[in-house]
Write a structure and sequence with these properties.
- The chain is an alpha/beta fold and 191 residues long.
- The protein has a single domain, classed as Alpha/beta knot (3-Layer(aba) Sandwich).
- Helix 1 packs parallel to helix 8 and helix 6 crosses helix 8.
- The protein starts with 7 loop residues before the first strand and ends with a helix.
């Protein structure tokens, strides 16, 4: 008997992002985010992992790294890295990523460290049920910097509950790599 694996894509958005002062900026793509999130995505059966940035220079940076590990010297040096990077794609916007994934009935769910007004909120267990029981495809959207803009998140189908820090501080400033791994484990893990 085959095991059902929910359809899941992941997008790491670099614009529109809030910076420390609350201004809207485009953040840089980091080498760590490419590799570490790709590895977590491979572990949890993510179909596509999109690095989303409007600047061509940033997408070219990603392409150079991917070429090194997929077909360049890195492909022979570390075959596990090549395997982890097979489903990594670039896109200049969320709309471009949506067209590449080409799943018409997917839910687009943003993540954020704080609750967002005016958009449906999903707990991890609710979204996991939507994915595993209702068999609804999900495109999970992560932000960089100090988070996605409220307007961006309000354009999504929902926002996933925040990953809460330990009391009493409830500190909520994880690296996006850590947040991605936690989200993927809670949504796609076998528990």
């Amino acid at each position: 008997m085959s095991v059902y694996v929910p359809r899941l894509a992941l997008g790491l958005v670099h614009f529109p992002i809030k910076d420390r002062a609350g201004d809207i900026v485009a953040t840089n793509i980091t080498n760590f985010d490419i590799h570490d999130i790709a590895r977590a995505a491979k572990v949890y059966g993510v179909e596509k992992y999109f690095l989303i940035h409007p600047m061509q220079e940033q997408l070219m940076f990603v392409d150079r790294i991917l070429d090194h590990w997929r077909v360049g010297p890195g492909a022979e040096f570390n075959r596990m890295r090549r395997t982890a990077l097979t489903n990594v794609c670039t896109a200049n916007s969320l709309e471009h990523a949506k067209s590449q994934w080409n799943v018409s009935d997917a839910l687009y769910i943003a993540t954020h460290a704080r609750p967002v007004e005016g958009v449906k909120s999903f707990t991890f267990s609710e979204l996991k049920s939507v994915m595993h029981i209702e068999k609804k495809p999900v495109f999970l959207i992560l932000g960089t910097g100090f988070g996605l803009t409220t307007e961006f998140m309000q354009s999504c189908d929902g926002v996933l509950e925040s990953i809460r820090g330990a009391p009493p501080l409830d500190y909520r400033h994880l690296s996006v790599r850590s947040a991605a791994s936690i989200c993927l484990d809670r949504l796609m893990g076998p528990w």
